Amino acid sequence: MNGLPRIPLADWIDLFVDWLVSRFGGIFDGVANFLEQTVEGIVSGLGLIPAILIALFIGLVAWLVSKKSIAIFSFTGFLMIDYLGYWDAMLQTLALVLTSVIISIVVGVPIGIWASQKETVRRIVTPMLDFMQTMPAFVYLLPAIFFFNIGVVPGVVASVIFSMPPTIRLTILGIRQVPRDLIEATEAFGSTTGQRLMKVQLPLAMPTIMAGINQSIMLALSMVVIASMVGAPGLGEEVYRAVTQLKTGVGFEAGIAIVILAIVLDRITQNIGRQNQGGNVS
Amino acid sequence: MNESNLKKIEVKNVTKVFGKNVKKATQLLNSGKSKNEILKTTGATIGVNKANFDVYEGEIFVIMGLSGSGKSTLVRLLNRLIEPSTGNILIDGQDVVKMNKEQLRDVRRKKIGMVFQNFALFPHRTILENTEYGLEIQGVAKAKRKAKAKESLKLVGLEGYEEQYPNQLSGGMQQRVGLARALANEPDILLMDEAFSALDPLIRKDMQNELLQLHDSMGKTIVFITHDLDEALRIGDRIALMKDGQIVQIGTPEEILMSPSNEYVEKFVEDVDLSKVFTAAHIMKPAETVQVDKGPRVALTLMKNLRISSIYVVDKQNRLLGAITAQGAKEAAETGATLQKVMIQEISTVPAETLLIDLFNLVSTAAVPVAVVDESHRMQGIVIRGALIGALAGNDVYINNPDIHKTDDLKKVD
Ligand SMILES: Nc1ncnc2c1ncn2[C@@H]1O[C@H](COP(=O)(O)OP(=O)(O)OP(=O)(O)O)[C@@H](O)[C@H]1O
Ligand SMILES: [Mg+2]
């Protein structure tokens, strides 16, 4: 503007990404392979089972963890997706979401635990989480493509980055919410840090952690359309194509399939969280 | 029970400063500045200020003081839940402050149990699982720790509740679980921070009695925090009074009541119900007696010289046999009867530790003043109506000096 030289931030980031690719290309390839095979494994595994059985199974699970109406909705909803012809796309999406969420849990929960125990870690992690969540999700797609080419892998990576924060955040929150006097009691009896964590903090934080996982699932689902822009197959792809070709009807059909999947996943995981309050029932 | 005087806990010059400027605050403290001044100039809070005391093996040591006086801080310094700023804390002669993590953990596991004001039970664990927690983290085998935990629950009267969850129990029962959980480890020392303060008065009294019974049968060393003087008097063998982080007086309940060391303690003691504190020993007067083998004439002469209308009859060992009035003695002298024959035998007697509140009825209905006797019925003194009323009115004249005689612990009364 007024004579000040412009900071070439964009150039630096480009340079950094290039450097990463050239330096760690091998690792990225390995990760890409792993992710791709996981997703494809889930898709082909579920593909072997008849749709009606999966719908029944989901209905049954819903019935076990929550109530009958949710069970009926889940069962008929899944059948409807099949009837509309989106079954394979739905499986692709489900696989992408599951993979992302599993990674979110496997990485996010330990980070959350760590941050809950160490104030400094928490100070570093929290702003990073803010960053991850507020940065427009599209932006993650670009470096993801660089590192992993197009296809399902950059989709998974972008979903993981976008959906992991709630799991970390609520893990931290859940553990920190455990009343002080309970922590004091564990200390007074001579617990080690591990014992305190495993026997008191984590069990009591479980409902909160499950709420975080539930949010992560929803965020991962919300990424499917964006992920389809880099070539991830699934319901998102159907929606994306419908939009670019102005096919309103198809767009809605695929959209409804996403909504059904979202509701079913939400209700089931929400109620798993509630069930885990275990001892608190009276 | 605490005659042995073995020191279980020794607290030596322990200070705890909360906040950042610990060094500066300590300096100011040493130069005699008050807690408030230090807070203003450095922003640091004095939690405990140069505490010095010993707790003897098997005693119930009560720490009392107003809110914010540092009771909780002090008790947490004992098992180092709070790190002391300076000073030493010896348990069985070993300095807790110098211990490393493992040693400290071991002391907490084996030697010290803790009971909390708000129970601090684990809501996701059953009563049994709560109780076995301490043993579980020590790696005690499942069957063994379950048996121990059950035993411990039985001790506090909670058999049959093993599979319930804490929120299914009333407050009193929850605190019993807290007590059972602390006892399951078989610690020598119990730390109880306002353990009964969250309970309603009736249940609280039950719990106090139960604690005393447990203490009697198990002989643990107990450090008990309270801000309630009545509670302190009921259960304490010795009481330490805290103010602004400092211990301002340590003594038996009697010493605290009789000679409050300063205004602060006096204020504390002021509104205590005297009838529940003082005992017959405090108000009894020496009794005039005559030995039974002396004749009625001797009795008559004694009464005349002492200007009294009746006199107690005792044997050679000073054991109370009865009393005789001037009228009775005169008749006996005329008929030549022995004292044994004519004396009144139905005399109300009480032990020395009877509370004044329990004396009222007896004293007001007795024809002859109520006699205070020891276990072997030996005469110790008498209670006259005027002294009872005078003492209750707060008139010190009627209260005996505590040094003259020895009364047993107040707590043994009920
Ligand atoms: N963690 C802490 N950080 C800073 N100040 C503290 C801390 N804990 C206690 N204090 C301060 O130390 C002083 C003593 O507190 P403490 O809790 O020991 O009092 P207390 O006698 O137990 O009071 P109460 O009867 O209310 O429980 C108070 O002034 C309190 O504000
Ligand atoms: Mg306190």
From TrEMBL, chain A:
**Topology of the protein relative to the lipid bilayer:** Multi-pass membrane protein
> Which residues belong to any copy of the ABC transmembrane type-1 domain?
90-269
GO terms, molecular function: amine transmembrane transporter activity; carnitine transmembrane transporter activity
Q: Which family does it belong to?
A: Belongs to the binding-protein-dependent transport system permease family. CysTW subfamily.
GO biological-process terms attached to the record: amino acid transport; choline transport; glycine betaine transport
User: What's the source species for this entry?
Assistant: Bacillus aerolatus
Transmembrane ranges? 42-64, 70-87, 94-117, 137-162, 204-230, 250-268
Q: InterPro entries under this entry?
A: MetI-like, MetI-like_sf
| Cell compartments where the protein resides | Cell membrane
| Pfam families, A to Z | BPD_transp_1 (PF00528)
This entry carries the following GO cellular component terms, namely: ATP-binding cassette (ABC) transporter complex
Q: What is this protein called?
A: ABC transporter permease subunit
Source organism phylogeny:
Bacteria, Bacillati, Bacillota, Bacilli, Bacillales
Q: Which UniProt keywords apply?
A: Amino-acid transport, Cell membrane, Membrane, Transmembrane, Transmembrane helix, Transport
Automatic annotation (TrEMBL), chain B:
Location in the cell reads: Cell inner membrane
Instruction: Drop me one GO molecular function for this one.
Output: ATP hydrolysis activity
UniProt enzyme class: translocase
Q: What reaction(s) does this enzyme catalyze?
A: a quaternary ammonium(out) + ATP + H2O = a quaternary ammonium(in) + ADP + phosphate + H(+)
Cited CDD domains: ABC_Pro_Gly_Betaine
Question: Residue limits of the CBS domain?
Answer: 283-339
UniProt entry keywords in alphabetical sequence: Amino-acid transport, ATP-binding, CBS domain, Cell inner membrane, Cell membrane, Membrane, Nucleotide-binding, Transport
User: Topology with regard to the membrane?
Assistant: Peripheral membrane protein
Example GO biological process: response to osmotic stress
Q: Which family does it belong to?
A: Belongs to the ABC transporter superfamily.
Quaternary structure, per UniProt, is: The complex is probably composed of two ATP-binding proteins, two transmembrane proteins and a solute-binding protein.
Name the UniProt record assigns to this protein: Quaternary amine transport ATP-binding protein
| Classification of source organism | Bacteria, Bacillati, Bacillota, Bacilli, Bacillales
